[in-house]
């Protein structure tokens, strides 16, 4: 009597290992599901931009913004409604993460973003700065993000930046808060 293994080895055709039609069906189904989720996320992003359509266009940097007080290279992580670190603002490209070159002058804050729209925050719109640990979609260690609060239209906005040299962020907080305090004091005495 031959053993069962010998009989299996003697057969001319081995058993099918893979059920290809079934496997292809699962792969196509999974790809369609991923495409649907991506499409829904994109529609949500567009819808959020539509809801924020009342936000005026971003100010552009003046021809001569003045002598730079501070400069910084790093990353722009996004903007949110001030005090609401999860309420991302996507209108006018404010939701697009990118590299950033910040320049602080007497006129305000110049934000240059390669691959995304640049904008300018006039000194009259600056409301303060702080170090924080997170902004919508980005959480770091305590004090890892430079958050600049500024007014745009009738909305207060927090914008999050991370310097390539994290140690310089403290100087930015001091300089921005000094400019804000000076402007508020000057504005208050002018009235």
Automatic annotation (TrEMBL):
Keywords: Membrane, Transmembrane, Transmembrane helix. It comes from Streptomyces xanthii. It comes from the Bacteria. InterPro entries: PH_bac. Residues 56-176 form the PH domain. The chain crosses the membrane at residues 24-41. Pfam families: bPH_11. This is PH domain-containing protein.
């Amino acid at each position: 009597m031959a053993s069962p293994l010998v009989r299996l080895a003697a057969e001319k055709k081995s058993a099918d290992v893979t059920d290809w039609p079934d496997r292809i069906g699962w792969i196509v189904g999974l790809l369609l599901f991923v495409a649907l989720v991506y499409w829904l996320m994109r529609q949500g992003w567009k819808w959020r931009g539509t809801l924020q359509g009342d936000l005026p266009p971003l100010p552009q940097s003046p021809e001569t913004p003045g002598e730079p007080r501070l400069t910084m290279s790093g990353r722009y992580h996004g903007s949110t409604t001030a005090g609401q670190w999860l309420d991302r603002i996507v209108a006018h490209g404010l939701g697009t993460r990118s590299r950033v070159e910040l320049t602080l002058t007497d006129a305000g804050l110049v934000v240059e973003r390669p691959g995304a729209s640049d904008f300018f925050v006039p000194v009259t719109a600056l409301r303060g700065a702080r170090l924080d640990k997170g902004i919508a979609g980005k959480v770091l260690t305590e004090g890892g993000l430079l958050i600049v609060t500024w007014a745009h239209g009738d909305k207060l906005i927090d914008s999050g930046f991370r310097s390539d040299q994290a140690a310089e962020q403290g100087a930015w907080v001091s300089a921005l808060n000094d400019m804000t305090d000076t402007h508020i004091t000057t504005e208050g005495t002018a009235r």
